[in-house]
């Protein structure tokens, strides 16, 4: 079982298991605010708990910033293993493997200023999983191969030297969203009523096409995305927004903005200064 809003790093392997290993995959729906439907999960566990091999629910969503009730999922799961993709949350919000109670938790260096291609799998010691790679038996014989020591050290250094101020970033996000709603009154923030990460804002601009908006924003020297940053340039509606109840049209009228540790108030104000013109031009293009 996985949530309908998982990153493709979880979604695609799960679907591969269906196609190649005969697994049954059940996707946990989410509310219009992007939170997993705990009532659905509870009912399914009561009815089919003995058949469920794994539940995977991400800690926070990379497109909307919505933070999932993972600890509640764990309580409902009982003895069923629970995995959480916490890549987006690490160093941004409080995150405790012990307090969550999950079986496994995944992190990645590139989200905290570390190098690409290095990550962490926190796995309960008493739990055994099949080897991913065979060879020298490194990493508890799960992933053999000489350890990438420079990247491991760089990952640790990035975490130790993190200067991410969550309160400051959240204030910038709120400043941006207030400005958006002030200048484009019919725009709306996706997931606004759920707990969210400090720096992600996903906004729907009715009557526009996100691909056109993306190009127009880029021409104004403002970087944003039509969905997951790693799928920028892929012309399809966001599966996350569709799961939250969007139509293909409204899902493709949405942009994802991110604030980071180096974002300033002047950056926010500049983005807001060009937004009305961009939206007007985008709506004019969409009406042709």
TrEMBL record:
<dbReference type="InterPro" id="IPR015424">
    <property type="entry name" value="PyrdxlP-dep_Trfase"/>
</dbReference>
<protein>
    <submittedName>
        <fullName>Unannotated protein</fullName>
    </submittedName>
</protein>
<dbReference type="InterPro" id="IPR000192">
    <property type="entry name" value="Aminotrans_V_dom"/>
</dbReference>
<feature type="domain" description="Aminotransferase class V">
    <location>
        <begin position="2"/>
        <end position="269"/>
    </location>
</feature>
<comment type="similarity">
    <text>Belongs to the class-V pyridoxal-phosphate-dependent aminotransferase family. NifS/IscS subfamily.</text>
</comment>
<dbReference type="InterPro" id="IPR015422">
    <property type="entry name" value="PyrdxlP-dep_Trfase_small"/>
</dbReference>
<dbReference type="InterPro" id="IPR015421">
    <property type="entry name" value="PyrdxlP-dep_Trfase_major"/>
</dbReference>
<dbReference type="Pfam" id="PF00266">
    <property type="entry name" value="Aminotran_5"/>
</dbReference>
